[in-house]
Specification:
72% of the residues lie in helices and 3% in strands. By secondary structure, it is mainly alpha-helical. It has one domain (9-151).
Length: 152
Amino acid sequence: MQMEHFLSEPSERARRNLMLFSSFCIFLAMLGELPTNVPILGIDLDTSHKQFLVALSFLVVQLYFLFRFVVLAWVDLLNWAVAQDAKARGGYRSHITDYRMLDLLKTVRERLKSNSSTTVANLARFFEQTLPIGYGTIGVIASFLILSVQNT
């Protein structure tokens, strides 16, 4: 039995961006301050007002990356559950628009609990979806820390 790939290409790109930017925000939060200049871009951040705006923009971008990945991963989860349900039913109701929302949630729960969902597949889904969401949340907290340091 071959394990199916869980995330779509747009979701993988969103996950990559979320993980990279989260790492950047966590790194800056661990430093405890923003650099005063960015020589490559020729930007001078010597005033606290400019640093506050940069810190605020980090928070906004981090929230965007997190929410984008959550939405895309949710759609991928729904599509996966519908495809699994279609296989179990011999192709019947094979499109996500054929389901009502409560039916979709029930289908997701059933397919995640079913015997066709192996431990390895569940572990892969955890690493592809849940772990990046948790790491992205830590990135949001780091962004708040950067913002609070710049606001003092």
